[in-house]
Amino acid sequence: MIRNSFALLFSAALISTLSACSKTEAPASSAGSDELVVRIGAAAPLTGPQAHIGKDNENGTRMAIEDANAKGLMIGGRKARFELLSEDDQTDPKTATIVAQKLVDAKVNGVIGHLNSGTTIPAARIYHDNGIAQISPSATAVNYTAQGYKTAFRVMANDSQQGKVLGEFAVQKLNAKTIAVIDDRTAYGQGLADEFIKSAKAQGAQIVAHEYTTDKAVDFSAVLTSIKGKKPDVLFFGGMDPQGVPMVKQLKALGLNTKFM
After folding, report:
1. Rounded distance, CA 26 to CA 224, Å?
2. Helix 187-202 and helix 117-129, axial crossing angle in degrees, nearest 10
3. How far is the C-alpha of 99 from the C-alpha of 44, rounded, in Å?
4. The pTM is what?
5. Is-contact 117 44, C-beta < 8 A?
6. What is the pLDDT along the chain (261 residues), one digit of tens a residue?
């Protein structure tokens, strides 16, 4: 699935990039008269708590490149050879813009990334300004594609779509009448939590608490203790697994018997 998805992404990236560059300069460098080198950038957290997800994205891109090279794809009558240029954005928005400019300077023809909404959004402007197709495999923030950049693509449902379904699931399937929410204040966590709340309220649920944390936190005892007194039917967390896992453990340790989403 990953390789097939990224193979489709290559096609979109190449079409967009070749079109954007056709009036100015060759979009890919020559390695010889019969070979066209196409540079594909990849940007994700390769270090830190979310590195396991970032490495998955990087490996998926690498596998797709290997598949494409094995098939001997042709572009403009010349055999194309894809190369991977991978960068670590450390889940940091400022680092993401540095990474984006680095990939631009390396003259990549398309970018698979970034992983997080908070890094994808600021990087998108840099790719747009330089006519480089960007396809995020996982950014869900509505604002990513709502910026109107013709170079920006996503391959999964956005927060508005996901939040609506999650809110409906909490009420209709989990029978939640009271819900507590925690979000990590990132573009992803906050965006998803806000849409979830909107949907859950529309389904008739009461939001009894909305607490906040960060994507670096490991101790949630204070917010969980506050929520425990509200006795919610469901606790919804907008964030990533490096916070979600210890949160569940601490939730159980506090004896908070609520369903966790």
Report:
1. 56
2. 120
3. 10
4. 0.83
5. no
6. 445 445 545 555 454 444 444 334 445 555 555 889 999 999 999 999 999 999 999 999 999 999 999 999 998 889 999 999 999 999 999 999 999 999 999 999 999 999 999 999 999 999 999 999 999 999 999 999 999 999 999 999 999 999 999 999 999 999 999 999 999 999 999 999 999 999 999 999 999 999 999 999 999 999 999 999 999 999 999 999 999 999 999 999 999 999 999
